[in-house]
Specification:
heterodimer, A: 290 residues, mainly alpha, ABC transporter involved in vitamin B12 uptake, BtuC, two-stranded antiparallel ribbon, globular, B: 235 residues, alpha/beta, 10 helices, 10 strands
């Protein structure tokens, strides 16, 4: 009984992190048609920024996390304005391939910049908040993990609210529905692209910053979250933000169940088998429409 | 009101419009007719800013529009209802309409007035408010596209082939809606294949062939003239 509780909780916690990462990734895919392989590096930027804000400048953990999220978002805006906008202006031929290659390049640049500037060592904090929440007699939830989960729920809910309830959020969705239609009603596509990328990076930075006590920042810390969020996006279907949230929890739980029953080495195998089965039966993903 | 002077437009090296000049007066209902491939859609797309003219002037109430991006042209009061409709299929009818008023989004009262106007004109859209645009029938989709175009309270409404792909009864309904709009004071530039019905509705018409305006005049004169009768009406 206790193990089931443990599994559920840990699965949910993981799912929250994957949801933060995957929803931003799939949003960019849907609105800008960019398969962003530098998404993990925004997670990294969030981690480093929170580390410096918290450990070096001594800011309150909440502020440090906020700094991490904003730093990732600002990095995203810079990348969008320079790299993607330039590519879009030059040529939209083979956009999907070219923009993908561009993101791979950006990923390397950010990774090795971090490597050169901050070195190969881990930069982490022992914890933001010490203490536990005793959930069951055998399972005590560390406060840091609880907070990371709350941050994920708040981040994803805020994104959902923004996209479905505000006119600007609807405008972002309209760009992914029909770009010409969006232009014809007076929406500035460029602005929407920048805003979309900024939001996506904000969520990635929030994930990296709030998980700093669990996964310290280092130049290649973003690769794991990147792959996991691609698992989720492929499982859920490209461009479907709400589907990716469900997909994130599916992968999170699946990994945890496998981890407890078969061992850590099998986690990715299990999720990849499920993804392959889903793709065989429903090639557009669980919530894909095409 | 809308003044198009010697507009040339091209796709790459292929020139499609040659010195096209047209005038759309305030409150007018102007038709642009011509065979397939004459450049009618290109003309509308050029006015709307989807295509940049290689030369020529486009002015809306003496403000130059040529070369502006489509979203700015739209914000200045030109609404294009395109042939493909370009609806937001995965979003609800009401969201499509609200986005139509994007330029006025900060003025809640104006948006709700426009909504009332559109629902009054197309009551079926009010019944289907919550439905996804992609699930509407062909006729309802046309009405939604027209409604979305009207939400911005445009100074000029450009309508591209609204009869395309519709059953005759629905074509009649869409044409009646256009006439009603014009009666309510909205300026319309209509592109249509359906020459007789179009010229019966419009006050003035232009005939575009191979990218040139070859004929223009009052609709009744065009209907009675030999060129239109022989080339378009088959009599």
């Amino acid at each position: 009984m206790d193990t089931i509780f443990d599994m559920l909780f840990i699965g949910l916690l993981r799912g929250g992190l994957y949801a933060l990462m995957a929803s931003g990734l799939t949003l960019v895919l849907g609105v800008m048609n960019i398969s962003n392989f530098a998404h993990g590096e925004l997670y990294m930027v969030g981690g480093y920024a929170a580390y410096f804000a918290g450990s070096v400048f001594g800011l309150h953990p909440l502020l440090a996390i906020l700094v991490g999220a904003l730093a990732a978002s600002a990095t995203g805006v810079l990348v969008e304005r320079t790299a993607f906008r330039a590519l879009r202006t030059m040529s939209r031929d083979k956009w999907l391939t070219n923009s993908f290659l561009l993101t791979v390049g950006i990923s390397f640049i950010l990774q090795y910049s971090a490597f050169v500037i901050w070195g190969p060592t881990y930069k982490g904090v022992p914890s933001y908040w010490e203490g536990f929440i005793p959930l069951t007699p055998t399972f005590r939830l560390p406060l840091d993990r609880a907070f990371a989960f709350v941050a994920a729920v708040v981040g994803v809910s805020a994104l959902w609210f923004f996209l479905t309830k505000t006119v600007t959020g609807k405008a972002i969705r309209s760009v992914s529905e029909d770009e010409t239609g969006a232009m014809l009603v007076g929406i500035n596509i460029r602005k929407m692209h920048t805003l979309t990328f900024a939001l996506s990076c904000l969520l990635a930075g929030l994930a990296g910053a709030s998980l700093l006590p669990i996964a310290p920042a280092h130049p290649f810390v973003g690769l794991g979250p990147l792959f996991k969020s691609y698992f989720v996006v492929i499982l859920a279907g490209f461009g479907n933000v709400m589907g990716s949230v469900v997909g994130a929890f599916v992968i999170g739980l699946l990994e945890t169940i496998t981890y407890y029953n078969l061992g850590a080495g099998w986690q990715n195998v299990a999720s990849l088998i499920v993804i392959m089965l889903v793709l065989l039966l429903k090639p557009a993903g669980l919530f894909g429409s095409e | 009101m809308l003044e198009i002077t010697n507009v040339n437009a091209a796709y790459g090296h292929l020139q499609v419009l040659w010195d096209v000049s047209m005038t759309v007066p305030e409150g007018g209902f102007i038709a642009l007719i011509g065979p397939n491939g004459a450049g009618k859609t290109t003309t509308l797309n050029t006015i709307a800013g989807l295509i940049r003219p290689s030369s020529g002037e486009i002015e809306l109430m003496d403000v130059p529009l040529a070369g502006l991006p489509a979203y700015e042209v739209s914000q200045m009061g030109v609404s294009l209802v395109p042939q493909d409709l370009n609806l937001f299929a995965g979003m609800s009818v009401i969201d499509n309409l609200i986005l139509g008023a994007y330029a006025n989004r900060r003025d809640k009262q104006k948006v709700s007035q426009s909504l009332d106007f559109v629902f009054d004109l197309f009551p079926v859209l009010a019944d289907r408010k919550k439905q996804l645009a992609g699930t509407l029938s062909g006729g309802e989709r046309k009405m939604l596209a027209l409604g979305r175009g009207l939400m911005a309270e445009p100074k000029v409404l450009l309508v591209d082939e609204p009869s395309l792909g519709l059953a005759p009864l629905l074509v009649k309904a869409v044409f009646e809606a256009l006439q009603e709009l014009n009666r309510r004071g909205i300026t319309i530039l209509l592109v249509e294949q359906n020459v007789r019905a179009t010229l019966q509705m419009a006050q003035y018409g232009y005939v575009l062939e191979q990218g040139h305006i070859v004929l223009q005049g009052n609709s009744s004169d065009l209907l009675e003239g030999t060129h239109v009768r022989e080339a378009y009406l088959g009599v």
